[in-house]
Amino acid sequence: MSRRVAPRARRELDREVAADTLNTRRARIVPIEQDGVTRDAVVVRVSVGRRPEVAAWLEAARNGQADAELSIGWLFLPETPAALLLCAVGRPVAFRFNVGFAVGWNRRYVEALAESGVLGLTAERLSPAEDGAPPPPVTFLRVPMGPLREFLRGVPPPPTL
Q1: Each residue's pLDDT tens digit, 55-100
Q2: Residue ranges per domain, the chain?
Q3: For 98, what's the count of Cα atoms within 13 Å in the CB-facing half-sphere?
Q4: What pTM did the predictor assign?
Q5: Helix-, strand-, coil-residue percentages of the chain, each rounded to 5
Protein backbone atom coordinates (compact mmCIF):
# COMPACT_ATOMS: atom_id res chain seq x y z
CA MET A 1 0.00 0.00 0.00
CA SER A 2 2.69 2.54 0.92
CA ARG A 3 4.41 1.97 -2.43
CA ARG A 4 1.31 3.24 -4.23
CA VAL A 5 0.82 6.24 -1.94
CA ALA A 6 4.37 7.56 -2.33
CA PRO A 7 4.25 7.86 -6.16
CA ARG A 8 0.76 9.37 -5.99
CA ALA A 9 1.86 11.89 -3.37
CA ARG A 10 4.89 12.75 -5.49
CA ARG A 11 2.73 13.32 -8.57
CA GLU A 12 0.39 15.57 -6.58
CA LEU A 13 3.33 17.54 -5.22
CA ASP A 14 4.80 17.84 -8.72
CA ARG A 15 1.46 19.17 -10.06
CA GLU A 16 1.12 21.66 -7.23
CA VAL A 17 4.69 22.93 -7.64
CA ALA A 18 4.32 23.18 -11.42
CA ALA A 19 1.06 25.12 -11.11
CA ASP A 20 2.74 27.78 -8.96
CA THR A 21 6.03 28.00 -10.89
CA LEU A 22 6.52 31.08 -13.05
CA ASN A 23 8.19 30.66 -16.42
CA THR A 24 11.51 32.45 -16.51
CA ARG A 25 12.44 34.22 -19.71
CA ARG A 26 15.93 35.58 -19.07
CA ALA A 27 18.30 36.22 -16.20
CA ARG A 28 21.25 38.45 -15.69
CA ILE A 29 23.59 39.49 -12.92
CA VAL A 30 23.58 43.19 -12.04
CA PRO A 31 25.55 45.05 -9.38
CA ILE A 32 23.35 46.82 -6.86
CA GLU A 33 24.13 48.80 -3.74
CA GLN A 34 22.40 47.64 -0.59
CA ASP A 35 23.21 48.76 2.95
CA GLY A 36 26.29 50.55 1.61
CA VAL A 37 27.68 47.37 0.04
CA THR A 38 27.74 46.54 -3.68
CA ARG A 39 26.41 43.07 -4.37
CA ASP A 40 25.76 41.06 -7.51
CA ALA A 41 22.01 40.55 -7.63
CA VAL A 42 20.41 38.01 -9.92
CA VAL A 43 17.59 39.61 -11.88
CA VAL A 44 15.09 37.28 -13.54
CA ARG A 45 12.35 38.14 -15.99
CA VAL A 46 9.29 36.07 -15.15
CA SER A 47 6.18 35.51 -17.20
CA VAL A 48 3.13 36.66 -15.27
CA GLY A 49 0.59 36.62 -18.10
CA ARG A 50 -1.56 33.96 -16.45
CA ARG A 51 -0.84 35.24 -12.95
CA PRO A 52 -2.35 38.74 -12.60
CA GLU A 53 -1.99 38.57 -8.81
CA VAL A 54 1.80 38.18 -9.17
CA ALA A 55 1.96 41.06 -11.67
CA ALA A 56 -0.02 43.30 -9.30
CA TRP A 57 2.15 42.30 -6.33
CA LEU A 58 5.40 42.97 -8.25
CA GLU A 59 4.19 46.44 -9.19
CA ALA A 60 2.99 47.21 -5.66
CA ALA A 61 6.27 45.96 -4.16
CA ARG A 62 8.29 48.14 -6.55
CA ASN A 63 6.27 51.16 -5.43
CA GLY A 64 6.65 50.32 -1.75
CA GLN A 65 2.96 49.52 -1.40
CA ALA A 66 3.13 45.76 -0.96
CA ASP A 67 2.57 44.26 2.43
CA ALA A 68 5.76 42.81 3.86
CA GLU A 69 4.01 39.52 4.61
CA LEU A 70 6.12 37.33 2.34
CA SER A 71 7.44 33.89 3.23
CA ILE A 72 10.34 32.48 1.24
CA GLY A 73 11.93 29.05 1.30
CA TRP A 74 13.77 26.60 -0.92
CA LEU A 75 12.86 23.21 -2.35
CA PHE A 76 15.87 21.34 -3.73
CA LEU A 77 15.65 18.63 -6.34
CA PRO A 78 19.06 16.92 -6.30
CA GLU A 79 18.20 14.42 -9.02
CA THR A 80 17.55 17.19 -11.55
CA PRO A 81 19.53 19.18 -10.07
CA ALA A 82 17.35 22.22 -9.52
CA ALA A 83 16.58 24.77 -6.84
CA LEU A 84 13.04 26.06 -6.52
CA LEU A 85 12.35 29.26 -4.60
CA LEU A 86 8.93 28.99 -2.97
CA CYS A 87 7.24 32.32 -2.22
CA ALA A 88 3.97 32.87 -0.35
CA VAL A 89 2.31 36.27 -0.12
CA GLY A 90 -0.10 36.65 2.77
CA ARG A 91 -1.97 39.88 2.07
CA PRO A 92 -4.04 41.50 0.75
CA VAL A 93 -4.84 38.33 -1.20
CA ALA A 94 -2.98 35.14 -0.32
CA PHE A 95 -1.21 33.40 -3.19
CA ARG A 96 1.97 31.48 -3.96
CA PHE A 97 4.51 31.50 -6.71
CA ASN A 98 7.77 29.70 -7.38
CA VAL A 99 10.90 30.58 -9.32
CA GLY A 100 12.97 27.65 -10.55
CA PHE A 101 16.67 27.44 -11.31
CA ALA A 102 18.10 24.47 -13.22
CA VAL A 103 21.54 24.29 -11.65
CA GLY A 104 23.24 22.70 -14.66
CA TRP A 105 22.33 25.44 -17.13
CA ASN A 106 22.06 28.32 -14.69
CA ARG A 107 24.82 27.50 -12.24
CA ARG A 108 26.49 30.91 -12.41
CA TYR A 109 23.19 32.58 -11.52
CA VAL A 110 22.52 30.15 -8.68
CA GLU A 111 26.05 30.64 -7.33
CA ALA A 112 25.67 34.43 -7.50
CA LEU A 113 22.35 34.14 -5.69
CA ALA A 114 23.95 31.95 -3.00
CA GLU A 115 26.63 34.60 -2.48
CA SER A 116 24.48 37.75 -2.49
CA GLY A 117 21.10 36.52 -1.27
CA VAL A 118 19.46 39.12 -3.52
CA LEU A 119 16.98 38.14 -6.23
CA GLY A 120 15.34 40.68 -8.49
CA LEU A 121 12.08 39.88 -10.26
CA THR A 122 10.61 41.76 -13.18
CA ALA A 123 7.85 41.05 -15.66
CA GLU A 124 9.36 43.45 -18.19
CA ARG A 125 11.87 42.75 -20.94
CA LEU A 126 15.45 42.25 -19.79
CA SER A 127 17.95 43.39 -22.35
CA PRO A 128 21.31 41.64 -22.54
CA ALA A 129 23.75 42.92 -19.93
CA GLU A 130 26.36 43.85 -22.51
CA ASP A 131 24.22 46.50 -24.18
CA GLY A 132 24.55 48.79 -21.16
CA ALA A 133 20.83 49.39 -20.85
CA PRO A 134 19.61 49.88 -17.30
CA PRO A 135 17.42 47.09 -15.97
CA PRO A 136 13.65 47.63 -16.03
CA PRO A 137 11.79 48.25 -12.76
CA VAL A 138 12.71 45.35 -10.49
CA THR A 139 11.36 44.02 -7.20
CA PHE A 140 14.24 42.82 -5.03
CA LEU A 141 13.85 40.00 -2.51
CA ARG A 142 16.23 38.75 0.15
CA VAL A 143 16.53 34.98 -0.10
CA PRO A 144 18.05 32.49 2.37
CA MET A 145 21.63 31.83 1.28
CA GLY A 146 22.75 29.09 3.70
CA PRO A 147 20.51 26.28 2.42
CA LEU A 148 21.31 27.18 -1.19
CA ARG A 149 25.06 27.14 -0.51
CA GLU A 150 24.75 23.75 1.16
CA PHE A 151 22.79 22.37 -1.78
CA LEU A 152 25.38 23.65 -4.29
CA ARG A 153 28.19 21.93 -2.36
CA GLY A 154 26.51 18.61 -3.15
CA VAL A 155 26.05 19.33 -6.87
CA PRO A 156 29.11 18.57 -8.96
CA PRO A 157 30.16 21.31 -11.37
CA PRO A 158 29.32 20.75 -15.02
CA PRO A 159 32.05 19.15 -17.14
CA THR A 160 34.26 21.59 -18.99
CA LEU A 161 34.53 21.30 -22.74
Answers
A1: 988 888 877 766 667 899 999 988 889 999 999 998 778 899 999 9
A2: 21-153
A3: 20
A4: 0.82
A5: 35, 35, 30
